[in-house]
Amino acid sequence: MVLKKWDDLPENMKTDAVRPYYDNLKKKIFSLFLKRGFDLIISFLLLIILSPVFIILSFAIARDSKGGVFFRQKRVTQYGRIFYIHKFRTMVSNAENKGSQVTIKNDIRVTKVGIKLRKYRLDEIPQLIDILFGDMSFVGTRPEVVKYVKDYTPEMMATLLLPAGITSEASIQFKDEDRILETADNVDNVYVTKVLPMKMKYNLESLDRFSLLDELCTMFKTILAVLKKDDIENIAHEDKGEEISKNE
């Protein structure tokens, strides 16, 4: 993974707020090289291993609702570059034209299969393609849509020094982000003014202490967070079932 020279960065990133993060990463060039090697090899192997899963999920999505299997959307990655992210479609066709670009809990645009895909984060699997092409990494700031990047503070721009990621400490801490936003009158405004700054606090801290070991720990914590969420929901369903039985 190549870190550009300071003079070659986009003008909106060559600021005093970004410089400390850049200087810190500049000292870790070898780790960045290993990070890209890890991304390249593991994403390639996983794409081969998970190919049967791709086929099964693609069939399930196509059967569940009209529209394509994949969801493609403009996102922002390293140095502010625009790319089209790969995700399994979890919403009805043209969902972006039927509401906010942020998804809330119980969003009526989410399909039946989409609910399951989101629960276990299976909709993220196609992003292995983006990792292979170098648009993303396994760990890094989640790629935002262009409209939200325009609201970045000068310091937040530092997160664009590295490729966007599938997971991060912020993703773990805000895995139930949809629940936070479900009661908001203006979802976009609440996301930009409250949620985004909190997520960016975690992203900037992770960037400041960047190391391969820290990223491996983040990947492991992500797996545990998904499994823990499933356990909590199962307990909640069991408790609800007991209450119904008692009432009966």
Automatic annotation (TrEMBL):
Molecular functions (GO terms): phosphotransferase activity, for other substituted phosphate groups
Transmembrane annotation, as ranges: 40-62
UniProtKB keywords: Membrane, Transferase, Transmembrane, Transmembrane helix
Coiled coil: none
Keyword Chloroplast: no
One Pfam family from the record: Bac_transf
InterPro entries reported for this sequence: Bact_transf
Top-level division of the source organism's lineage: Bacteria
Residues in Bacterial sugar transferase domain copies: 35-228
Keyword Mitochondrion attached: no
Recorded family membership: Belongs to the bacterial sugar transferase family.
Protein name: Sugar transferase
